[in-house]
Amino acid sequence: MKFKLIAGPCVIENRDVIFAIAEKLSSLSSKYDIDLIFKASFDKANRSSASSFRGFQLDEGLKILNEVKEEFKIPVLTDIHESYQAKPVSDVVDVIQIPAFLCRQTDLLMASAKAVSNSSKCINIKKGQFLAPWDMKQIILKMEKFGLDIGSNKLWLTERGTSFGYNTLVVDYRSLPQLKNYGCPVIFDATHSVQQPGGMGSKSGGQREFVAPLARAAAAVGIDGIFIETHLDPNKALSDGPNMVPLHRIDKLVGQILNIRECLSDGIASSEY
Question: Residue 62 needs a FRET pair 20 to 30 A away by CA distance; which of 28, 87, 217, 272 works?
Answer without folding.
Answer: 28
